[in-house]
Design a protein that fits this description.
Elements: H1 11-36, H2 65-93, H3 97-122, H4 127-150, H5 153-157, H6 168-192, H7 216-245, H8 251-276, H9 281-324
Length: 338
Amino acid sequence: MKSPAPVKYRAALHFYAIGLSVATFFLLFAGGMVTSTNSGLAVPDWPNTFGQNMFLYPPSMMKGGIFYEHGHRLFASLVGFLTIGICLAFWILEKRRWLRWTGTLALVLVICQGVLGGITVLYKLPMPVSAAHACTAELFFAVTLLMAFATSRAWISAAGAKVRWASPEQALSIAFCIAVFLQILVGAVMRHSYAGLSIPTFPLAFGEIVPPFWNFGITMHFLHSRIGALLLVLLGGLFIAAVMRSPGHSARIKAAAGLLGLLLIGQCVLGMITVWTGKAPLLTTLHLSGGALVFATGILLALAIYRLRDAASLRLGFAESSVRTSPSSKPRDGVALT
């Protein structure tokens, strides 16, 4: 069986993918400011802006809520064009079929995002559509992170490493990322059903640990700010401890795990301050952005554990075997996703 051709590291493509991930993060922040400032219907039509071509709308008219809503649309268009570019670049330059289709998935998701955003405006901010719009943005962000990591020198140089799925860190990394996404989903439902202050105090709820009465808003708020946050911190603590205790991980991976712990703490503090300040727009958006950073760090850490741990062991094994074998002997690589 003929072995696949080696994958070439392309610095320009890698930094393009990083740029797309960074732009997507700022797009999430911009979208958060739209909701935090109640500017979702500041521009009441779509895809036009007050009947004009969106790209020709005068910047001098972008004031108040229009600045947030129209600015969000323009930035979303930029991310859309960047996604088209990386999808085309993958199909032209990339030899890895799975990465080509990942680029296509990113394009599909960004198109869905645009359509969901338009429906949100046209149908006056329906909660299910608005929440779906927020969660699809996070999924798109996750895909951009995968593309950025998969085009990196570290990922490509790890080709041939055998992957073991039995390690507790791998299982915990997957569970943690799923838990973060579910927490984001509950938060999106809470946010777009205007339940962010359904429980206006913290840590007590109406003077008690458990609310003495319930409705939809209180239920979603309690699930997100109490139960979900507590479970996520506990699961994150287990995940971080497993990574720190493992002798097979590099100092960089352990540093990333430490960063994840700091982000979790910061996110909890921001959540408390958001309630205490009555959902001040900037603080509320920073809390949303903090959730995206926790999600991103969890995904990158999960990918690093999957890809790099056994790669490091493999390189160590090559170094040891080179001492015992002649210079002309060549170690055989395992099979892995390249």
